[in-house]
Design a protein that fits this description.
2 domains, Rossmann fold, about 35% helix, binds cytidine-5'-triphosphate, eight-stranded mixed β-sheet
């Protein structure tokens, strides 16, 4: 695979030379890009000798008259590159990535590169713990990048704490994991439902639920990053649409059902992350209800269960449902798996699921298998769910 190894300006920069060798030994092509600061710690010649390639250091190489090609070199490399790994990623470099600066070659390349990114931070423990750094790391994590957390131990500055560049084997492992996910949904169409539905009671009032849509949007983003065409059918949420998704906005459960049925034939994988309202007011008055001292009783009717309906007509499609529960999580999720004829149910606790950026989920598969995905950002969980979907599809096909 064509990798770019970005080297940031920290004392751990010397370890990047070993990392370059480890990646070469695994058969990857490694192009090294160094920041200005990195060159204060290690000389480009070290990497050039190891990789057999010129190291890229500047957007506009000094000395010679800038050639036309140098103005677009970061774009050319972004197209050729299949994975970007940055080690050590300093506090400054993380901040520049998080905020989208393009002030030197490596940061410009980062912005131009749409593929998988692995970041291995290394810095002083206080710099790592600083809320600014933690906020930048969180932004990058939410963007879907793999962060190889630094390790605890004595640091070059004399302090003891978190900040040491992770063991090289962990960085290599993360590169291999990110590489495996790369474009493995190319040619596929994934239909994702997300967010709450909103059921009107009159022209101004409605009932709804606390779903933020974050899990469904994270799934859409992850599927897009892996090369899928994504149809995202979304209830009302306050999230920017993932670039590239075919967004269908709906309000009510009935509209969501219609949108899913309209687009179902296009999709091979259907993920129902939406928190669909279970009840609605069948006849919504045309006029706003006036306030009065009298009690207001509402008779609500059940909404159609979209997931159960798709379960009956899904054919070869992989159908993934969600179960948010306050009690008997696993038993209830398994009941839904069978009752709605799903291939997989993602089970999470109501307290964990709604609104937060992180989540902890368990997968129940129709094969009887249970997989604990652990606690992670919704974006990372989205990738782990897609990993499990692809593995499940392989095993179901093999069993046929
Ligand atoms: N779902 C659906 N249509 C509905 C209700 C739910 O498609 N009218 C889907 C959700 O998108 C989710 C799954 O069903 O994937 C589980 O939703 P949940 O509300 O947890 O389950 P319910 O079927 O409503 O069961 P219960 O109220 O018994 O928990």
């Amino acid at each position: 695979m064509n990798l770019v190894l970005g080297v940031g300006g920290g004392i751990a920069a010397y370890k990047a030379a070993e990392l370059a060798r480890a990646l070469l030994e695994r058969g990857h092509n490694v192009q090294v890009v160094m920041t200005r600061a990195a060159r204060q710690f290690v000389r480009p010649l070290t990497f050039a000798a190891l990789t057999g390639r010129e190291v890229i250091t500047d957007l506009f190489p000094r000395g010679s008259q800038p050639a036309l090609a140098s103005a677009t070199e970061h774009i050319r490399l972004a197209q050729e590159c299949e994975l970007l790994v940055v080690a050590p990623a300093t506090a400054d470099l993380l901040a520049r990535f998080a905020h989208g600066l393009a002030d030197e070659f490596l940061t410009a390349l980062y912005l131009a590169f749409p593929g998988p990114v692995v970041l291995a931070p290394a810095m002083n423990a206080n710099m790592w713990r600083h809320p600014a750094t933690q906020a930048n790391v969180e932004t990058l994590r939410q963007r879907g990048h793999l962060i190889v957390e630094p390790e605890e131990g004595p640091l070059a500055c004399g302090m003891v704490g978190p900040g040491r560049l992770a063991e090289l084997s962990r960085i290599v492992q993360a590169v291999e994991a990110a590489a495996a996910r790369r474009r493995d949904l190319e040619g596929e169409c994934v239909l994702v439902t997300a967010g709450p539905t909103l059921e009107p009671l009159d022209p101004v009032r409605f009932i709804s639920n606390r779903s933020s849509g974050k899990m469904g949007y994270a799934l859409a983003e992850a599927a897009l990053a892996r090369g899928a065409r994504v149809i995202l059918i979304s209830g009302p949420v306050h999230l920017p649409p993932p670039p590239g998704a075919e967004l269908v906005r709906v309000e009510t459960a009935a509209e969501m059902r219609q949108a899913v049925l309209d687009r179902l034939s296009e999709a091979g994988i259907v993920i129902k992350a939406a928190a669909v309202a279970d009840y609605h007011l069948a006849d919504v008055p045309r006029q706003k209800r006036k306030k009065s001292a009298a009690r207001w009783s509402l008779e609500l009717d059940p909404t159609p269960d979209i997931l159960a309906e798709i379960g009956q007509i899904k054919g070869d499609r992989i159908l993934v449902g969600f179960a948010a529960e306050t009690e008997n999580l696993i038993a209830e999720a398994r009941r839904k798996l069978l009752a709605k004829n799903c291939d997989m149910v993602v089970a999470n606790r109501v307290e964990e699921a709604f609104g937060a950026d992180d989540n902890e989920v368990t997968l129940l598969l129709r094969t009887g298998e249970t997989i604990e995905l652990g606690r992670a950002s919704k974006r990372e969980l989205a990738d782990r769910i897609l990993d499990a979907v692809l593995r499940l599809r392989l095993s179901l096909h093999a069993a046929r």
